[in-house]
Amino acid sequence: MSLTLIDGLYDVNKAMKVLTTSVKLHRIKSGLTTFSLLLIGLSCRKSSMNNSYSILLENHSTRPVGFYIATGGTYGTLYPDTSLPKNKSIDIISRLDVNKTFYSYSSLRWDNVFKTLPKDTLSVFIFDSDTLAKYPMEIISQQYKILKRYDLSISDLRKLNWAVPYPASSEMENMKMFPSYP
């Protein structure tokens, strides 16, 4: 920004008007840029939400639990194999505190995930968090130290509205689980 020279003197008033106009234009441009980024961000968020599908795990018990959703992978298992993973890394077994919900996301629709499974069944294992802290996975696996295992079909998950509670709700009375309901 330069000041205007009039008769060898700088016209401060004219320079201030130019500066004020420049600042206003900058604010408008900045506001438009922020607004544009906000719109882009919202459209990206909406897009990513439309491409993300979740199953909720809800802990309604009085103690923290650990859980494992058997979707295969390097260390995992798939139903009808109901053996436990050989490793209790954070990627395999996660902690769920009292009255908390965990969202298990998939970029694929769960209908499509189920099509890749050997059976129309997804196993969800629930562990006492103290058991996970106290014993190595080898002992947990050998002695099958689980609180509950749900063997859920896609139809079961739809009935539960994609929210799997622990302990089992009355809606789950006729669903496959070990030990059996309740």
Automatic annotation (TrEMBL):
Domain of life the protein comes from: Bacteria
The protein, known as: Lipoprotein
Organism: Mucilaginibacter panaciglaebae
